Structures are given as structure tokens and as C-alpha cells.
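Q: Two folds, back to back.
A: First:
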Amino acid sequence: MTKPARTLDARVQTNSTTAEKRSNVLATRLRGAVRIARTTGPVLGRRSVRAVAATRAGLGWTSRRVQAMPASTSQSLAAGSVGLGAGLLIAGAPRLVAATGVAPAVLIGASILMRARDQVIGPEAAQ
């Protein structure tokens, strides 16, 4: 009868040492992750500010270019973009890919709406 008790003790000791090893590995990984976060955090902050500024400038330029297009051209581009996104979604592409296909339509639609508002204000001011 002493043998089963010893085996049980051995299992308990093995489980506790395994748990200690796991917690040590986890603690080591967490320390590494914290170290990486501390070193890359400031760099990431600077880069994200620059990325937002560049994106804002690019969107402004693109919006001005779309507003300068004839209405039929910008509407055709928006319809093509929506069609591309819908086709990708129907074909079984991931939603992120389909959303990327529709993204130009959102920008073009916003530019069309901004242009329409400017055109409505213009003739009313002349009357």
C-alpha cells in the first residue's frame, strides 16, 4: 500500500515542479514583453503621429483631385469600387479585403457630397 502513496506524492511533486517551470517561463516572457514595450513605445508614438499627418495630407490631396473630376467620372469610380468590394465579398474573400476594395468609394462619396454642398451654396448666394 505504500507504493500508491509514493506514486501519488511523486505525481504531486512533478505537477508542482511543472507548474513552477511554467510560471518561470511565463514570468520571463512577460519581462521580455515589458522590456520591448518600454523601448519601442516612444518610437511607435512618434511614427504614429507622422503617419496620421501624412494620411491627413494624402486624404486632402485626394479629395481635392476627386472634386476636380467631372461628376460622371467620380460616380463611375465609386460604383466600380463598390462593385469590386461586393465581388470580393461574394467570392469569399476576407471581410478586410472586401472593405479595402470599398474604401475608395467611401472617400469618393465623401468628396461628391462635399462638392454637392459647395455647388448648392454657390447658386443660392448668387440669387
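A: Second:
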Amino acid sequence: MTADLRTILYNEIHPCWDVGALAGAPNPEQLVVYIDLVLNPDGTVAGTPQLTAQSQAAAARNPFVQATASAALRAIHRCQPFKLPVDRYGEWRTVTMRFSPQDFDQ
């Protein structure tokens, strides 16, 4: 996925990203999860987004990482369908998204 498409997708997810429960969490720089998703041509999520293996392991060890993952998954589902250029579907059909409260703290 190109940087411009990633920016479009992040901008669409941002309004649905609620990280209020993570306020004051220790080591906020460690609250990072990666989620693999497959999107349909209409911008809806195909199947179930999955945490990468590394993120699954981190979430199993740290409840704040688990909360980050849950917030990210909720945001993905709430904000779909995403408005991405259909003519570039091949570029955004599958994507691994990085989520961290620090990224969305704007």
C-alpha cells in the first residue's frame, strides 16, 4: 500500500478510534499492534481482521496492548466502508495496518 493510500485509510479510521481507556497507560510507546485486513472493492472488510502473530503475542502478555488491539478492531468495523479509489483496488485489497494511540493522538 502506498503512503497516500495509507494516509487516506488512517484518516478514515481516525474518527472511530477511541483510545480513552488507554489514557495513563504505562509505556505508551509499547502500545503498538499490527492488524492484517482484506478489503472488498466497495471498501468493506472481507472476513475478520487478524492481529499479526507478533501483536497476538504482545497482547497476550500485556492487557494494555490487548486494549489497543480491541480499540483498533472496533474502529475498523465502525468506520467501514472505506472510501478508497476503486481503480487502485489491487494496491489496497490486502493491508497490514499499524495502530498505536500515539499515532492517533491528534
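Q: And?
A: The chain has a mean pLDDT of 91.
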